[in-house]
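Example record for the data management plan.
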Amino acid sequence: MSTRRTGKAKVLLGQAYSLRLDPKLRQAMQPYPPLATLYAASVLRAHGWEVALFDATLAESSFAWSEALERNLPEVVVLYEDSFNYLSKMCLSRIREEALSMIAAARRTAGVVIVASSDASDCPDLYLEGGADYVLVGEAEESLVELLARLEAGKLGEGDTIAGVVGRRGQPVVRRPPISDLDSLPLPAWDLVDVDRYRHAWRARHGLFSLNMVTTRGCPYHCNWCAKPIWGQRYHSRSPENVVLEMQRLAERYAPDHLWFMDDIFGLRPGWIGELADRLESCGLRLPFKCLSRPDLLLRAGEVDALARAGCENVWMGAESGSQRILDAMEKGTTVEQIRQASTRLRAAGIQVGLFLQFGYPGETREDIERTFSLVREVLPNDIGVSVSYPLPGTKFHERVREELLEKDHWVDSADLDMMYQGPFVSDFYRQLHRVLHLEFRARRSAATLLASLRSPRRLRPRHLGAAARAAVSLLRLPVERRRLDHLGLAAPRPTRIPGPELSAAEASRPTPQPIEQR
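Corresponding structural encoding:
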């Protein structure tokens, strides 16, 4: 690898995830820059490398990548996917195809092509066969720095190995330990991002501007369907001081109205959120934010109050199911009752509640599904996210259903909802279930909004009449959609069961929910 007069070889960092490849999220238009890619850029800069960025998120066509290659003429190209983006972990097939196409284009101009992503960590040979010279497995910043330094110095022989780097097909994967001192990392290279373009997209659609941050890396919990190709079972946290420093810089330079903390688990360490709130209050900074947490963590003394003091407006919980039997089978380590209690505490503190729900886990029955419907009715969250169980490589769940995997092994985009294994019901059943649950949820939310407005007639607005109209339309559609769901429910591929604990005493004592068609 040659060097330029200006110093070390120029590196072009890019990523394949683009909203143009995902119509559902393009319609939602809540774009965030590729944070992991920005971290990689800042780390390379700190080690003296000349770095350029290709941000595919808002790119309108694949030609933008070719233009970036021609404009920058890099000696090294690194496709560095955003490992904080859950869709990158799933590896949608359109994103994989785009990445392979980008590798092929880079081969024509760059001397070295490197790939770092969840999918590449799981399937390094696929990317090496696609033209990559090296694949970085797991957390990649330190591996990338060492690889480039060895290449620059010409000290990487045919048989030499670097932890976290795969350079030939069939080479054993030797993982590098994750970075434990996250405060030692430079802050993300935000100056490489066209922030104005993101601001315009957000404000045009939502009337506010949101940016993304992370305070931790990894997750120590054992949910057996959740892949951990980057950090494994490890969890490391930044200090509250370091987080506040970044928040201050973002506020001063880019003036966001809102933040999304993309952590898998926000504030796991006891007392951490309280420390963050204290520091934010002491410097007079208040940036509203949303984050992800677990119901058991939210029930710790003072946790929700600390979130409210820190500026939290919305907490998403991985509820997954209203059936304790399914939660236990997933090894979630949480209970349905904790979901109820955590939701109540959040609401009392003025924080909105979002629930992630998952259907189609092995052995799930209509009764289990009904318990999830009942949970949503009881909690009545501000929003829900609905998906189906997805066997990701490297998980216990994937191993458990290996013999039942279907020919299609990746979703095309985030709206796909195809079953990847021979689950309790067919894919069309789950698509219809998604439709029915959202219809019922929207009707109940709209009705709740209308009732609240009627209690204060002075605050009645045209949007409240719109909510009433939406509720009426949803209620009119529900009976037909429920009948179709019941018809599709008869088309189960085969009965399945899961080993594990029976319903808890508390769950068993609850009345069995009525079947959908009886409501």
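Summary line stored alongside the record: The mean pLDDT is 91.
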